[in-house]
Write a sequence for this structure.
């Protein structure tokens, strides 16, 4: 039982749960294989588009439904369950051969403000105050607390209102109908802070994270969330068509979306009518090099989004004249460069580099960021362009650590379990030797990283940097990047990303700041190479508060709905806290299903 | 004769030319007024799109041409001249009431590698070497010198080849037909370095900048370039329809673009047939808050692009199913925040903050960038997100200077001419008083800048920062940001952006680094607020090496061509040197015209 890819996500750390996690990992491996097949078997973006309006009188559909849902992650599965519950005849189509999309690899946490568990526990969370919090960070440069819409456009404001108003309802309805049983994710450590912890608007931080409850009452990760939703679909006899890649939207003469054409693994095509609407929950475009290049602000090497997340919806929606939005944004995290170069759909992301005797440095041996800052924001440091050197100066960062961190935190991704090795870890007896080995490794990779090399003074700078960091660790405060100053840094470090292995000779609690311990540069010392990645992108067609996809004139495209990572995130560039991806996905999937189920039936041609 | 908005662009600095520049400024003022009217009189993005295929048999066109060109800046005007020269019947339509677009406000410099003036002077510039230079900076994270396509996709590579191969030809043909007479822009200071000056690929930096030659042999700015091109159109009797905003593409039943529908100032509509093609040269989307929000990676407050550059082509091309690219990029420059808040189409951009006893600091009173780095790259520092403070920490930067800089460089934008005042300049007797005044000013603006305030230690930090900078100035080297180390920094500072006023008591040449002089913090001291802006954006529909606009499947959309800032820049995120915007615009406008003129005639319905 290898632990080198232990799930680095919300977890409790018992042996039983380690076992659960390892079983989940097998599923993920299957997923990668099967999804990879699906992706390879399909035809690439070249086939994606919109077909001409169907000729009247022809019966062009192989099957007829009220609603067709695309994608089997949380967004798609929830949309299908809720639409079915509303009385619609629903089909769900999935491009891969494994159900669950990126949700199945995730921690399965959903961020829901003002949820019933908080309310039941007496945590009052007023609408107005929460909207201020969300607006401030989602639109930081425009936020205006005195403006009726807080400096946002009406459309942006309405999406945040919809998130606040519908999130709790969605979770309660899913629970009531037995489709997804939720519980607070605040055990066993008590509430964990959101990512806007220090904001003046967030004076009473509460843990808004929920996750699924297993039948035995224990917590569920993403695979459990997917299991419950899949069972709910089966119970409702919703057809689930696996290995069906939606390659075209079908429209009638009025331009309404009335169905989809799918391409199956054997290249045959199937046309599904959707009398009331098509709902996309098909994931982002992390795995499309083309779309990443055209829309992202800096180099991204991959991410843990499943291989099928190639932005199919962006291509089809573009062809349908949809308005694109939030395209330079993503749910960001660091990834292990060499894993991503092998296969851009990485097994896991680096949510927080584990370790206290550990730093991240750039090619000049200099720290550039608070290593314990949340992943979404920390990763943006890779996109700093140096105008004097004309380079992506932080294109890759080196995670440098010592024997203490290797032993005490081994097994926390990306550290290999104590005593084992990982091909992407470089070990050396001293800092100069480490620098040499790292330089050699970069030499082998140079064709894939723009020829990046270590600066000439790397080893000297790194030694000086370690000495400076060690001073910060000893006194407990980081004069350069404030590591460990925030509650987020300390709690997520201690309880989630860097919980210590028992039974080593190393102690914690002896330094004034739990996130920092002096690095023993005497050796052995270690390095691994990190780069910018994503959980997935979060730009795509823009929706309104009814989850209707909009055209360039901000008018809904009739019959077309979206939720999750395939659409322009209603939360903009910000990630509110643990579950900040799935919370809005759950909410807008719920809204999309309600909207589509209530939509009028459309003529097929 | 006010000098406070003296053109901050390539210039020679004689009194006669100052006069020319001031005359040009009057034109720009007229332009702003007229273009503003046009923009206000038009109907917003709500009307932009693609009309359904025209019914067969109807004669729907008001006028028929072979080629319709949209936009009267360099790209549009050159496309129209060349197409006409190729024998096509051409019309040019312009949304504004003044001819020339953003080109008329520009320095009128075009960057053309391997141009005839260089060749005639014996500067050999091999194709392969130049392609390496371009590829390295346009695609810095993927550049691979050993790869046949240098790490680029075939499509990206082909665009760079097209730029190298066609740029010189375009300039020569324009000269030969008398449409645009060029000359090297290397007078009177000798060659000025490109923006990739220090690259190892650019061992023999030569000045690739050209600009127009006036009839008297003197140099021409953008207004002269526009004057010549307009005269060339008149000579060829090409109809120029002013105040015509293209609001729809017209397609035939085969999906080919066969014309445009224009909306005039009085809201009436005109349909123009384009038998062979429609060429867009209509500018970027700087003045569309919607598109900036959806695609740019950080807050942009405006830029010197004309008010009509609202991204009309992005909306129409989206509706036509075009593939968008380079959307997170722009030709970047800093702008004066308070000018941009008044009117997002600013009179001018801050290409290099003038002055030697001058620094830029952020809200914490800290320098964050080499003030003399080129504008395109320097401005990206505004987009650094601080993951610990959860803020755009450089959302605005403060240009701090002393009496020396005010007097010696007064008149270099944004410094008001010596002895005059500008409303956006804050003057105080001391650093603490300056900090107070700046704090008050920010308080008045807070609703428009996300509530940004000065850090509590701003005044103390600023004093310490000045002391540190003064040490760098005295010894001649900037340990923090290498200001003045590069040839670009020194030459462009001395000769273009910060040439000194004669007749003051201040001397230059007494410090070892011409870009730095100690700041006299004893007072008076000055501050003004800078923010991120653009010359214009450079993302939009993707073209191929024939300047054909591509659809999501990378297939040309028949009949649709583009060049200039309205399309995805063939040079990606990089700005090669002075004229890096207009050089590719000239080249691909030339290519588009040749392609469209050679295209087959299309059925109208």
């Amino acid at each position: 039982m290898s632990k080198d890819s232990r799930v680095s996500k919300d977890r409790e750390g018992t042996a039983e749960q380690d076992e659960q996690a390892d079983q989940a990992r097998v599923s993920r491996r299957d997923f990668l294989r099967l999804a990879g097949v699906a992706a390879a078997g399909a035809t690439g973006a070249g086939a994606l588009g919109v077909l001409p309006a169907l000729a009247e009188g022809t019966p062009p559909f192989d099957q007829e439904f009220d609603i067709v849902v695309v994608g089997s992650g949380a967004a798609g599965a929830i949309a299908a369950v809720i639409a079915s519950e509303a009385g619609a005849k629903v089909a769900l189509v999935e491009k891969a051969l494994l159900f669950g999309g990126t949700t199945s690899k995730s921690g399965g946490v959903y961020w829901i403000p003002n949820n019933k568990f908080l309310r039941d526990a007496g945590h009052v969370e007023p609408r107005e105050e929460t909207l201020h919090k969300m607006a401030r960070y989602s639109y930081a440069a425009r936020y205006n607390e005195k403006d009726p819409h807080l400096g946002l456009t009406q459309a942006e404001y309405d999406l945040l209102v919809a998130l606040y108003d519908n999130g709790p309802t969605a979770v309660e309805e899913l629970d009531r109908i037995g489709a997804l049983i939720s519980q607070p994710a605040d055990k066993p450590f008590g509430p964990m802070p959101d990512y806007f912890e220090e904001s003046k608007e967030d004076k009473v931080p509460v843990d808004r994270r929920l996750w699924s409850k297993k039948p035995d009452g224990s917590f569920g990760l993403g695979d459990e969330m997917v299991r419950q939703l899949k069972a709910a679909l089966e119970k409702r006899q919703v057809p689930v068509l696996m290995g069906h890649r939606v390659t075209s939207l079908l429209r009638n003469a009025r331009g309404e979306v009335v169905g989809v054409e799918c391409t199956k693994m054997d290249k045959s095509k199937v046309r599904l009518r959707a009398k009331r609407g098509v709902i996309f929950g098909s994931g982002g475009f992390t795995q499309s090099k083309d779309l990443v290049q055209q829309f992202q602000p800096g180099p991204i090497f991959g991410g843990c989004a499943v291989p099928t997340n190639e932005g199919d919806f962006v291509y089809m929606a573009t062809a349908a004249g949809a308005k694109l939005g939030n395209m330079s944004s993503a749910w960001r995290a660091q990834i292990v460069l060499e894993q991503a170069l092998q296969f851009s759909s990485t097994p896991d992301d680096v949510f927080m580099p584990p370790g206290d005797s550990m730093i991240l440095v750039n090619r000049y041996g200099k720290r550039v960021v608070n290593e314990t800052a949340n992943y979404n924001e920390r990763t943006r440091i890779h996109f700093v362009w140096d105008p004097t050197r004309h380079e992506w100066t932080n294109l890759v960062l080196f995670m440098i650590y010592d024997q203490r961190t290797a032993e005490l935190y081994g097994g926390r991704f990306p550290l290999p379990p104590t005593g084992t090795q990982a091909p992407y870890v470089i070990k050396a007896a001293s800092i100069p030797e480490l620098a040499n080995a790292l330089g050699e490794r970069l030499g082998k990779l140079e064709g894939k990283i723009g020829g990046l090399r270590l600066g000439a003074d790397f080893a000297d700078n790194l030694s000086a940097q370690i000495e400076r960091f060690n001073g910060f660790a000893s006194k407990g405060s980081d004069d350069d990047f404030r590591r460990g100053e925030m509650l987020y840094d300390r709690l997520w470090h201690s309880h989630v990303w860097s919980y210590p292995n028992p039974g080593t000779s190393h102690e914690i609690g002896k330094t004034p700041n739990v996130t920092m311990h002096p690095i023993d540069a005497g050796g052995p010392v270690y390095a691994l190479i990190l780069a910018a990645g994503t959980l997935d992108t979060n730009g795509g067609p823009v929706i309104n508060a009814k989850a209707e996809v909009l055209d360039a004139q901000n008018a809904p495209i009739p019959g077309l709905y979206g939720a999750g990572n395939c659409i322009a995130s209603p939360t903009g560039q910000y990630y509110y806290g643990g579950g900040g991806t799935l919370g809005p996905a759950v909410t807008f999937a719920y809204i999309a299903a309600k909207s589509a189920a209530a939509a009028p039936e459309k003529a097929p041609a």
In short: The two ends of chain B are 56 Å apart (CA to CA). Chain B touches chain A through 73 residues (CB under 8 Å). Residues 1-46 of chain B have pLDDT under 50 and may be disordered. The longest strand of chain B covers residues 525-537.
